[in-house]
Amino acid sequence: MTRKAKSQLARWVSTPPAFNVPMSQHTTLRVGGLADALVHVKTLSELRSLVQFCRERDIPLFILGEGSNLIVRDGGIRGVVLRLGGELEQVNFNTTKVTVGGGVYLPHLIVQAARKGLSGLERCTGVPGTVGGALISNAGTADEFIGDLVQSVTVLTEEGEVRELSRDELRFGYRWSNLREKGLIVVGAALNLQPDEPSAIMERIHHRWRYRRQTQPVNQPCAGCIFKNPPGERAGRLLEAAGLKGVRIGDAQVSPLHANFIVNLGKATANDVLTLAEHMRQTVHERFGILLEYEVQIVGDD
Ligand code: EPU
């Protein structure tokens, strides 16, 4: 971004933007170079105005959730990175429906719903992302997804128009949705939940948490599963069978606990992580003839 664009941006938004921000501080894998600008947007009208600002000046815009399913390359991100807060982080329960902003932190929502005696979101236990990010990538387990709960999703289009997409207009697949279409920003959603005993819901959450803690490196910097499970197979099983557990490039290591996770042992770069991921992919391809597809989102300049 030019200096002029940066100073215009600073005047345009209500919360002062941060410039040249290390994305390693905003991703759970703790890698990634500098973003030109990071902006916190508090209202839908401010978001619309920012989309217009960027469009008029040809400035790329990237929506950051919790940075938990994301690898930012070492050259960082050009343009504006934005996070949704304020009214875009609100939660409203209405009998068995919950209306949520795209910036809502999913782990908090899961517990709030459980306390209200509303079940369904347990499938997302341990997904450390925002609702918007979870919807775009249809987060969940290997066979239960957040998309199954959706009644409607509210988006902001590239043209600055707010649209409510009904269930019929939405497509959810395995770690995929048509919300990925260019330029759509998920600003909110209405989810359908089921009434149940709060204690029974909490017990299911604890059960899933125990499983995650036993099988995934939840206390180490990582970005969740690197690859999608191929049809009828498990990427983790193939990667382990190919002898990849524990393999290291720099400070990036294939988790000894779950072979579909790469952990950052301290000073890993995005280049270490991506070189290791390609090595994993090639090894599985040579061994089993299966080319794994990336599940994490990879963005930024080399
Ligand atoms: N397995 C191995 N070796 C490993 C890892 C797994 O042999 O290193 C085997 C396990 O023994 C098990 C099978 O693979 O028999 C499945 O493992 P797991 O239950 O851990 O599930 P997964 O398919 O590896 C999926 C999702 C996870 C989600 C878990 C738990 C994908 C790519 N992954 O993992 O989602 O947390 O189920 O529900 O669909 C993510 O989306 O980032 C993610 C981590």
Q: Secondary-structure blueprint of this entry?
A:
Layout: H1 3-12, E1 18-22, E2 34-41, H2 44-57, E3 61-63, E4 70-72, E5 77-84, E6 91-94, E7 97-101, H3 106-115, E8 118-119, H4 131-136, E9 150-156, E10 162-166, E11 172-173, E12 176-177, E13 185-192, E14 194-195, H5 198-215, H6 235-241, E15 248-249, E16 252-254, E17 262-264, H7 270-288, E18 297-299
Parallel strand pairs: 2-5, 3-5, 4-18
Antiparallel strand pairs: 1-2, 6-7, 7-13, 8-14, 9-10, 9-13, 11-12, 15-16, 16-17
The protein binds uridine-diphosphate-2(N-acetylglucosaminyl) butyric acid (EPU).
Uridine-diphosphate-2(N-acetylglucosaminyl) butyric acid binds next to helix 6.
What does this structure look like?
With 302 residues, the protein is an alpha+beta fold. 28% of the residues lie in helices and 25% in strands. The protein contains seven helices and 18 strands. The chain has helices at residues 3-12, 44-57, 106-115, 131-136, 198-215, 235-241, 270-288; strands spanning 18-22, 34-41, 61-63, 70-72, 77-84, 91-94, 97-101, 118-119, 150-156, 162-166, 172-173, 176-177, 185-192, 194-195, 248-249, 252-254, 262-264, 297-299. The strands form six sheets. Strands 6-7-13-9-10 form a five-stranded antiparallel β-sheet. Strands 1-2-5-3 form a four-stranded mixed β-sheet, covered by helices on one side. Strands 15-16-17 form a three-stranded antiparallel β-sheet. The longest helix has 19 residues, at 270-288. The structure holds uridine-diphosphate-2(N-acetylglucosaminyl) butyric acid (EPU). Uridine-diphosphate-2(N-acetylglucosaminyl) butyric acid binds at residues 141-142, 215, 224-225, 228-229, 234-237, 240, 258-260, 295.
